[in-house]
What does this fold into?
Amino acid sequence: MFRFILFALLILILYSVLYYLIKDMPLLRKRMSRETQPEELVQDPYCQTYIPKRSALKKRIHGQDYYFCNRECLKKYLSKS
It folds into this structure.
């Protein structure tokens, strides 16, 4: 009888561990699929470097969108024009 209770307890623990590991699998798949997609790059008009559009600073100037790698390039571009 003691072996049966120990076996049932072991099965319950194993089930809990597997459930904890598997419950986030769909979220991980979504995250991984987003990470594997290529990211769009944009060119900074001041220093001419390419940066990911998602992390670039966006500024609308004269109705056109410009993307900058940092605030310094944005300030220098605005002072230049």
User: Anything to note?
Assistant: The mean pLDDT is 86.
